[in-house]
What we know:
The protein is of the alpha+beta class.
Amino acid sequence: xxxxxxxxxxxxxxxxxxxxxxxxxxxxxxxxxxxxxxxxxxxxxxxxxxxxxxxxxxxxxxxxxxxxxxxxxxxxxxxxxxxxxxxxxxxxxxxxxxxxxxxxxxxxxxxxxxxxxxxxxxxxxxxxxxxxxxxxxxx
Length: 139
């Protein structure tokens, strides 16, 4: 009886530990109260992954930089269409769009010393859509 219980518990522990979750799926998400950068929209219902993100902004130099990661349930095609429509609505120009396992859309905004590039990467892990946004000045 004891041996059977030990074997069953061992199998249960092994079964639970066999499939490790992807780190982005296990990361704690936070509701998006407001987008990190006001001119980069976030789809409704997506959660901000603070441990996988960073950003800073120098108002006096008008320099913004960051990598923002979000997780949500919309299909990646809908998220792609969301960004292609909404970014243009806040004065970003679509520069490049690539598909495949990951969709990457590159937007640019501004000119001269105030030019910025925003790279939006969209992909799916299991049943979740991940959006990674990289914002950098263009020099």
